[in-house]
Amino acid sequence: MSVVDFSGGAVFLDAATVDCGDVDFTRLREVAKPLQLYPQTTEQELPERHPDAWCVITNKVKLEREFFQARPNLRLVCVTATGVNNVDLDAAADHGVTIANCKGYSTETVAQHTFMLLLALVRSLPQYQHAVAQGEWSRSSMFCLLDYPLRELQGMKLGIVGYGDIGQRVAEIARFFSMEVLIAERPESAPRPGRLPFAEVLARSDILTLHCPLTSHNAKLINAKTLGQMRSGAFLINTARGGLIDEQALVEALREEKLGGAALDVLSVEPPPADHPLLQAQLPNLILTPHCAWASSEARQTAIDQTVENITRYLNAKR
C-alpha cells in the first residue's frame, strides 16, 4: 500500500444531517485539517468531492466499491452514526480502508422520544389537541373534555423487542413509572434468562416498543400475523427501523381498531413519498415523527465528538 498523503485533508459529505447550526466543529477541524464541509452530497456529486482526501466523513451517503477504487489515498471512513449499512465494508477492507462508527450517542434521546410517543398514545394527546383546536373545549358544557381514553402507566405491561443500550434504557424508565417490563427473545429462539418467548410478549403487552436493528431475518417482523397476536387495544411504538413493520398491515390493523394506536419515528422509505400509506391514512390514533428521535442537539454533538476521537485514535496508531 502506498504511503498516505495527509495533505489531502478530510471531507464531510453530508454535514447538514447532524448540524442545525448548533454543532461545534472546532475540534473536528483541528484533527482533520484541512476539513471541507458539504451540507449534502448527491450520487452525481460524490466523485468530485475531494478525491485526494485521506479521511471521508459521512452519515448516510452511500459509499460503494467504485468509490473506494477511485480513491487510492483514502485510509479512513468515519460514519457519524452507529449503522454502517451505507458503506461497502468488503470493498473498504479490500482497499485497506478503516471504518469507524459511533456508539451510544443517541441512547438517551431515543429513549426519551420513545416515552414521549408512549405517553402521547396512552393519554390520547393527538385527539385532545385536535379537539381543542376545533373549538370543542370552548363549546363544552363543563370545565373539561373527557371524550377520549386516559390511561395511567403503572401496572401496564411494556414489551421490548431489542434489548441493547436503548432497550435497556427504556426498561429503566418504564420501571420508574411502575410498569411491568417484558423483554422479548428473538422469534423462533429459546428464551435466554430474563427474556420471554416473542409470541408471549406480543400476547401480554399493553405497549410494544421496537429497538432492534433491521436484518434480513426480522424484516416485516410486525406483520398481519404478529399484529393479530397482539392484545386488542395494545399500542405499537417504533423508533428503530421502518422495515421492521409491514406498513400496509399496520394501516389495516389501525383502521379495524385491532390496535389502540401506533407511534412511529421511522418508515421503510425515507423520506417517504407523499402517497405513502401511513401518510395517507389520516388516523387519529397514529402518530408519525420524521426520524428525529436520535437528533437532540446533545446527541448530534456527541456523534461529532466521537468522530474526533475516532480520527485521533487512527492518527495515533499511524504515528
In short:
This protein has 319 residues and is of the alpha/beta class. 32% of the residues lie in helices and 13% in strands.
What's the topology here?
Elements: E1 10-12, H1 26-31, E2 35-37, E3 55-58, H2 65-69, E4 76-79, H3 89-94, E5 98-100, H4 107-122, H5 125-133, E6 157-161, H6 165-176, E7 180-183, H7 198-204, E8 207-210, H8 224-229, E9 235-238, H9 247-255, E10 261-264, H10 277-280, E11 286-288, H11 297-318
Parallel strand pairs: 1-2, 1-3, 3-4, 4-5, 6-7, 6-8, 8-9, 9-10, 10-11
Features:
319 residues, alpha/beta, Rossmann fold, 2 domains, six-stranded parallel sheet, five-stranded parallel sheet
Summarize the structure in words.
The chain has 319 residues and is of the alpha/beta class. The protein has 2 domains: 6-105 and 297-318, NAD(P)-binding Rossmann-like Domain (Rossmann fold, 3-Layer(aba) Sandwich), CATH 3.40.50.720; 107-288, Rossmann fold. The protein is 32% helix and 13% strand. It contains 11 helices and 11 strands. α4 (107-122) crosses α6. The longest helix is centred in the last third of the chain and has 22 residues, at 297-318. The protein is elongated.
Mean pLDDT: 95
CA-atom Rg in angstroms: 23 Å
Number of helices: 11
Category from helices, strands and their pairing: alpha/beta
The unreliable regions are: none
| Number of separate domains | 2
- What are the secondary-structure elements, in order, as H or E? EHEEHEHEHHEHEHEHEHEHEH
Strand order in the sheet with the most strands:
7-6-8-9-10-11
What is the overall silhouette? elongated
> Helix coverage percent of residues?
25-40%
CATH superfamily of the largest domain: NAD(P)-binding Rossmann-like Domain
CATH architecture descriptor name of the largest domain: 3-Layer(aba) Sandwich
Report the biggest beta sheet as strand number plus sense, adding barrel if it closes: 6 strands, parallel
In total, the number of strands is: 11
